[in-house]
Amino acid sequence: MLFSKYGFLRLAVCVPEVEVAAVEANTRQTIAALGKAAAAGAQLAVFPELGITSYSCSDLFFQQRLLDDAEQAVGQIAEACAVHGIAAVVGLPVRYKGRLFNAAAVIDSTGALAAIVAKTHLPTNNEFYERRWFATALDLPDGGEISFLGSQVPFGADLLFPVEGWGDCVFGVEICEDLWSVIPPSSGQAIAGANVLLNLSASNELLGKVGYRRDLVRQQSARCLAAYAYCSAGPGESTSDIVYSGHSLICENGSLLAETARMSFEAQMAVADIDVGKLHHERLVSSSYRESTTRSFRRISVSLKPWKEGGGLLRKVDPRPFVPADPLRRTEHCEEIFRIQTVGLAKRLRHTKSKAIVLGLSGGLDSTLAALVAVRAFDLVGIDRKQIVAITMPGMGTTDRTRDNSVVLAEMLGLTLREIVIREAVEVHFRDIGHPPDLHDITFENSQARERTQILMDVANQIGGFVLGTGDLSELALGWCTFNGDHMSMYHVNAGVPKTLVRHLVEWCADEVFRGPEAAVLHDIAATPISPELLPPDTEGKIAQQTEEVVGPYSLHDFFLFQLVRLGFPPDKIRYLAEIAFADEYPPEVIAKWLDVFIRRFFSQQFKRNAMPDGPKVGSVALSPRGDWRMPSDSVAASWLK
């Protein structure tokens, strides 16, 4: 059994109230903060730089009384760690061979002092002059030990801390300026295996610094494919010349998970669940990470209490990972994707020297988006929109709503519209193969899809152009396309766009790109139920065959797709996260049902993806067999279904 079932580590950054040089009071506050962090379920708590004494002691650092008290304080904090079952990293000055070091004491959840890490880069400019008191870890030999609290303890900057019973979780420690240096020690720690990076800091506040600091931490977490916890000294420090705000934050691979309030004299704490399993996957698939080299490190095992599944998850689980919740960011997202699709198609037009394309325009979301991209691409390369031949092909399930929308849209966009009714051709085909026309099975449906594809291909030959595919990423994931039917084209312009994003792209086009009379049609198309329209309409002429009733909600399937392909999560973790993300939408048994369907279809339909045409990647998930996803068609899903 894994130490942490779903790969989560609960981490706290704690900024206690401090007084300058008041070790006894600061220790009490640190222990109180430890208790609050433990009550919040934190397994590991990080405190500010030199927090036991306060960072701003200046020449008081040379006082033996202060140094003796700080050493004894670590013993008291270690006892508190054992009582609360929480590990901690606290800052203090330590003596070693006649020199003083700015250091961090690492204490595990049993109260054992695992090691002491020394600061490498000492700022000595402007308001900082640490070299007046401290020596740098660069002067220390690797493999050193320090006599501390009557025991020999590992000491230096060559230390990493794997968690006992959880080989995938390793943390490293650096101190303040280390992060601001050209090559932070945390970079080497990350290359050597640390995926949780901790920084004890005393970062003063200046105009504009908060944004820079936030970006610095966030970017370092992304560069190192790691979590990064930055804990900074608060306003209880001396304000003789500068002010400390206590701004502390936790980031994970470029995302800000939590941060504290600034400028508060009250103790502050931010807690987040780090997804160590996610970070482990990111490194497994990163060739740059695999090829990096670094110095050797000593590994000192530390014990942490297990993460509690029943305590809730202290991180946001986005139910729609492909669709930004923030409207402004979503707009930027749509604009960028539309540009990528447009340039991809424009390049294909330029390369093939084609002056025309053909696409099936059904009045649904996917074909509408493809038509909009085609219009913009033709405008970009200077070809008349009339050379876009949109063919509507009414069949057994076509409704007036979708047909009318496709006709109106083609006219408004200035396309060449052709209508070719396929009913008679399909009925002849049924007679040829001996299929009863009233048997509405898979043959009934696929015959229509293949007849439409044949028409598109042959018309493309007639006009000297190529067929523009319209299917999307979600359909490819589920295999919800007819092999050698709508599965096939000469360029698959929507191949990288998931279904949950297609609707937003069409609506964005209505609001931002094709304003005017086209907008009303686009909004109606966006509101149309998703359907392949291969089965006859109901008695009122409305769509009877709704895709999501058959194959499942695309919101769930896109969530499953992102977690499985992008993050490499196992099914039990995907289900756990889905139950959190969709708590207000779907009960657990419904989530489990459609997750089972997703896994079965994802594995069984790989043969279609292995034969998919070219198409542009637009996001972090793509299924092209020539790019992101290479999977044998005869892979077995048994382990995932189990």
What does this structure look like?
α8 packs across α14 (499-513). The chain is 39% helix and 17% strand. It contains 21 helices and 20 strands. The strands form three sheets. It has an eight-stranded mixed beta sheet with strand order 6-7-5-4-3-2-1-14. A seven-stranded mixed beta sheet has the order 13-12-11-10-9-8-15. The protein has a five-stranded parallel beta sheet with strand order 18-17-16-19-20. The radius of gyration is 30 Å and the shape is elongated. The mean pLDDT is 94. It has 642 residues and is of the alpha/beta class. The chain folds into two domains: 8-308, Nitrilase/N-carbamoyl-D-aminoacid amidohydrolase; 327-641, Rossmann fold, CATH 3.40.50.620.
Uncertain runs with pLDDT below 50, 5 residues or more? none
CATH superfamily of the largest domain: HUPs
Mean pLDDT: 94
The assigned structural class equals: alpha/beta
Radius of gyration from the alpha-carbon trace, in angstroms: 30 Å
As for the CATH topology of the largest domain, it is Rossmann fold
- CATH C-level class of the largest domain is Alpha Beta
Count of individual beta strands: 20
The biggest beta sheet is recorded as: 8 strands, mixed
Strand arrangement within the widest β-sheet reads 6-7-5-4-3-2-1-14
What's the architecture of the largest domain in CATH terms?
A: 3-Layer(aba) Sandwich
How many domains, in number, for the residues? 2
What is the approximate shape?
elongated
What fraction of residues sit in β-strands? Answer: 15-25%
